[in-house]
C-alpha cells in the first residue's frame, strides 16, 4: 500500500514531485487494475495540484459521488454515461486540499448488495466486500493512497476489514453527503480508506478543515470497552481470534480493557436499522423504482419490493428507538474512551457473488458515531481480519487516536 | 385561489374531469403569468393521471427540486437548461398520488435572497417573498391548487404570509429533501402551499403516505402559547395587529391562549442559526463558488464570501446549542398543543428588489418543528398578514388541526 504520509514526506523532502506521485498512481492502475477492477473510470488527464496539504495525493472516488468532469454511474446501467453538473462538496473539498481525484471506483448498484466485478487484492478469488468495493481494493492494491467511500450499513468498515486497509466512517455528516446518491438520508455517511490510521487522520483533517484531527506521534493508552454485539449473532473463528488477539496486545501496551454489554435499547436500535433504512431507501430510489424497475439488479430490486409495505408508523417508531439509543450510548461512554468490536463476521468470503454482511456495522451507522477499521491481524486462511474502534458522536479524534494505539500494539502501520 | 379539496369534490361529483382541472390551470397560467411571473417553465404536455387521491391536481414545483422531464435551473444561469437525470423523491411521490407537476416555479438563486422577477398577486408592486417566490404566487393567483416549496430560514412561511396562502413547513424530513438543491442539510425542509389549511393537510397526507394527517371537519380548541420572539426584534404594526386579532378571535372560539417567554437556550439557538446554516452553505455550494463565483448573484456571493471564515468549532458549538434548544422546547410544550407567533415582520414590502426577512421563521426551521402559516388577516394597507402556528417535532397533525381552528376563528378558509 502507499502510505499517504510517507508520500507527502517524500514530496516535502524533494525526493518526489507531486506530479510524479500522480503518475505513479496512473502507472499502478495500468499495471494492476485489469485484474483487480477497482476503477470504473480513470481520468488519464489528471494532474497534481500546485499546492495544498494533499498535493500529489491521487484519490479514488466511489462512483455514487458526483463529479463534474468524470461520469457518475451509481454502479447501475440506469446511469450509464451520466455526467452530473457539479462536483459533490466532498470532491471540491478534496481539490481545495490539493488532492487529485484520479478516477471513479466501483460501487455496487446504488451502494446496495449486488456485487461489482472487483476482486480482493489479498486473494483475487475473494470478494473485496462492498458497497465501497473499488475504493477498498484500490487502496489495498497500492494504486492510490486515499479513497472515498460511503456507509449506510457496513459499506466502509467491512471492505476495509476484508482488504486489510485502515478506514474511517466519521461521525454522521462530518463530511457532507450532498451530491452523493442517497440510499438513506439518516444513515449515509462519507468516509475514507488509507494505508494506516495516521494517513486517515491526516486526510480527514485536510478534507474536513479540522486540523485537530491530525494525530501526534504519541497517543495515550485508551480506556476500552469490549463489546461483542451478541444481538448481531456469532462471529466466525477468525474474527473472534482477531478481537482476542487485539485485546491481549492492547493490554500489553498499557490499555485498560473491560468487557461489557450494551443497554437493551441499543440492541433494539440494531434490530430496527433495516426499518429506518428501507423506508428511506424506497423513497430515495422512488424514481428508479417507478421508471426503471427492471434495470435494478436482483438483490436491490427484491429488497425494494419488500420495502414497499413499510409504513410511516413503523419508521417513526424506529427513529424514536434510534434517538433513545443515542442517549443510552452516551452513558455507556461515561468511563470509557472507545469501544472495541468486530469489523466483520470473518475474513472476506471466497466468492465474487456476494459482498459479505454488515451485521457488526449497522448499529454504529444508525447511532452516527465514528468507527475506524484497524488492520494488522491476519487470520488462519492468510486473509486480513480487522477490528473496529468506536467513539462517541463528534469524537472522531478520540476514535483515530485509539485506533492508532491499537494499530501500533498490533505491530501494524 | 383554487381550493384543492373543492376541486377534488367537483371531480368526485363528476362536475369536472381531472383533465379539465389540469386544463384550467394551464389556462390560468396563460392568462395571468405574463404579469405574475410565477413560473419559469410550464409543461404544456402535462396531463391528468387516471387515478390517485390527487388526480386532477396541478402542482407548481420550486425550481431547485429535480425533475427528469423539465429543466431544473436553481434560479441561476449556472444551471441554465440543466436537466437532472431523475425526479426528486417528492416529485415521484406527487405523481404516485396522482398529482400533475405542471411546471417549475421561480426560486431565488439557490434559494437565497437575490429576488426573482415574480410579483405579489395581491399587489404587483410588492414582493411575493422568497425564496419560494413562484410557488407562493402561483397558488395565491389561482393558477394551481398546490405548490412545493422549501425553507432553510423562512422561505415557505414568509412568502405564504405575504401572498395570503396557507402553507406548511413540516417536521424536518417529513418530506424527503433528496434531489433538492442543498443550501444547508440540517435546515432545508420541503413543504407545501395551498389555499386553505385542510387543502394542505390533504395534500401532505397523500404525498407523505400519512393518511392520519388529513383533518376531520371538527377540530378541538387548542391550548396555545403566545410567543413574540423578542430576541428576533420588533414586528411592524400590521403583524402585531394580526397576532392580537388572532388571539382575540381564537379565545372567542374557545381556545386557551397564554403569553409566554422561551428558555434562554432557545433564544441562543435563534442567534446561532446563521452560523450553522452558513458553514453548511459554503460546503453545499462549494463547487459553484469555486468554479462559477462570478455568476453567483450579488447577495449570495457576498454571503458566501463572508461565510468562508466560519470554522468547524463555531459550527460544532452552534449544532450543540440547537440540540439543547430542541430539548428545552419539548419542555415548553408540556402543557400546550401549539405556539402562536408572527409569520413575518409585516406585510409584503413594496419592492421587487428584496424578498423580506426570515427573523421570525429561522428559529423553528433550526429546531425542525412543524410550522403552518394561517392566512385570513388583512393589514392596514390591504395586504395579507399571516400568523404562524408551531407544534412539537413530529406533531404535524396537531399543527394543522390548530391552524385550522385558527383559520376558522378568523373567518377564513
Q: What keywords describe this structure?
A:
homodimer, 413 residues, alpha/beta, Amidase signature (AS) enzymes, eleven-stranded mixed beta sheet, 11 strands, globular
Biggest interface between chains: A-B, 36 and 36 residues
Superfamily (CATH H level) name of chain A: Amidase signature (AS) domain
**According to CATH, what is the class of chain A?**
Alpha Beta
Whole-number tally of structural domains of chain A = 1
Uncertain residue ranges of chain A: none
Spatial extent as radius of gyration of chain A: 20 Å
Helix and strand succession of chain A?
HHEEHEHEHEEHEHEHHHHEHEEH
Distance, first to last CA of chain A? 10 Å
Broad shape of chain A: globular
| Helical percentage of chain A | 25-40%
- Oligomeric status of the shown chains? homodimer
Content-based structural category of chain A: alpha/beta
| Strand element count of chain A | 11
Biggest sheet strand line-up of chain A:
1-3-2-4-6-5-10-11-9-7-8
Main pleated sheet of chain A: 11 strands, mixed
Give me the CATH fold name of chain A.
Amidase signature (AS) enzymes
Percent of residues in beta strands of chain A: 5-15%
What average pLDDT do the residues of chain A reach?
Answer: 98
CATH-derived architecture of chain A: Alpha-Beta Complex
SSE topology:
The structure is a homodimer of 413-residue chains.
Chain A: H1 4-12, H2 18-36, E1 39-42, E2 58-62, H3 89-96, E3 100-105, H4 133-140, E4 146-151, H5 157-163, E5 166-169, E6 189-194, H6 197-208, E7 223-226, H7 237-252, E8 256-259, H8 264-284, H9 286-292, H10 298-307, H11 312-332, E9 338-342, H12 362-367, E10 371-374, E11 387-390, H13 396-409
Parallel strand pairs in A: 2-3, 2-4, 7-8, 7-9
Antiparallel strand pairs in A: 1-3, 4-6, 5-6, 5-10, 9-11, 10-11
Amino acid at each position: 500500500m502507499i502510505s499517504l504520509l510517507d508520500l507527502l514526506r517524500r514530496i516535502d523532502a524533494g525526493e518526489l514531485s507531486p506530479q510524479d506521485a500522480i503518475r505513479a498512481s496512473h502507472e499502478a492502475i495500468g499495471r494492476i487494475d485489469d485484474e483487480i477492477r477497482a476503477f470504473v473510470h480513470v481520468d488519464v488527464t489528471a494532474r497534481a495540484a500546485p499546492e495544498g496539504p494533499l498535493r500529489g495525493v491521487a484519490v479514488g472516488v466511489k462512483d455514487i459521488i458526483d463529479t463534474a468532469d468524470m461520469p457518475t454511474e451509481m454502479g447501475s446501467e440506469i446511469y450509464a454515461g451520466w455526467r452530473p453538473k457539479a462536483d459533490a462538496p466532498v470532491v471540491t473539498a478534496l481539490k481545495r486540499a490539493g488532492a487529485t481525484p484520479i478516477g471513479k471506483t466501483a460501487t455496487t448498484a446504488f451502494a446496495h448488495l449486488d456485487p461489482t466485478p472487483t476482486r480482493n487484492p489479498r486473494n483475487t478469488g475473494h470478494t473485496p466486500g462492498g458497497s465501497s468495493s473499488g475504493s477498498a481494493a484500490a487502496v489495498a492494491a497500492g494504486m492510490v493512497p486515499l479513497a472515498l467511500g460511503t456507509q449506510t450499513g457496513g459499506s466502509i468498515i467491512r471492505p476495509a476489514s476484508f482488504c486489510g486497509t485502515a478506514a474511517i466512517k466519521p461521525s454522521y455528516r462530518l463530511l457532507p453527503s450532498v451530491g452523493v446518491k442517497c440510499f438513506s438520508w439518516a444513515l449515509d455517511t462519507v468516509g475514507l480508506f488509507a494505508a494506516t490510521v495516521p494517513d486517515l487522520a491526516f486526510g480527514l483533517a485536510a478534507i474536513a478543515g479540522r486540523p485537530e484531527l491530525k494525530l501526534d506521534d504519541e497517543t495515550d493508552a485508551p480506556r476500552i470497552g469490549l463489546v461483542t454485539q451478541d444481538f448481531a449473532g456469532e462471529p466466525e473463528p477468525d474474527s473472534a481470534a482477531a478481537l482476542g488477539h487485539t485485546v491481549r496486545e492492547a493490554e500489553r501496551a498499557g490499555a485498560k480493557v473491560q468487557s461489557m454489554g450494551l443497554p437493551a435499547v441499543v440492541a433494539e436500535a440494531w434490530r430496527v436499522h433495516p426499518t429506518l433504512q428501507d423506508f428511506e431507501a424506497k423513497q430515495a430510489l422512488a424514481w428508479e423504482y417507478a421508471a426503471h424497475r427492471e434495470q435494478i439488479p436482483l438483490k436491490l430490486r427484491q429488497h425494494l419490493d419488500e420495502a414497499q409495505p413499510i409504513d410511516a408508523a413503523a419508521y417513526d417508531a424506529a427513529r424514536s428507538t434510534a434517538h433513545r439509543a443515542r442517549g443510552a450510548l452516551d452513558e455507556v461512554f461515561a468511563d470509557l474512551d472507545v469501544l472495541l468490536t468486530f469489523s466483520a463476521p470473518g475474513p472476506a468470503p471466497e466468492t465474487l457473488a456476494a459482498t459479505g454482511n454488515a451485521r457488526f456495522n449497522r448499529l454504529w451507522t444508525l447511532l452516527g458515531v465514528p468507527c475506524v477499521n484497524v488492520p494488522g491481524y491476519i487470520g488462519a486462511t492468510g486473509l486480513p481480519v480487522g477490528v473496529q474502534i468506536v467513539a462517541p458522536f463528534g469524537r472522531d479524534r478520540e476514535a483515530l487516536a485509539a485506533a492508532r494505539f491499537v494499530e501500533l500494539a498490533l505491530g501494524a502501520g
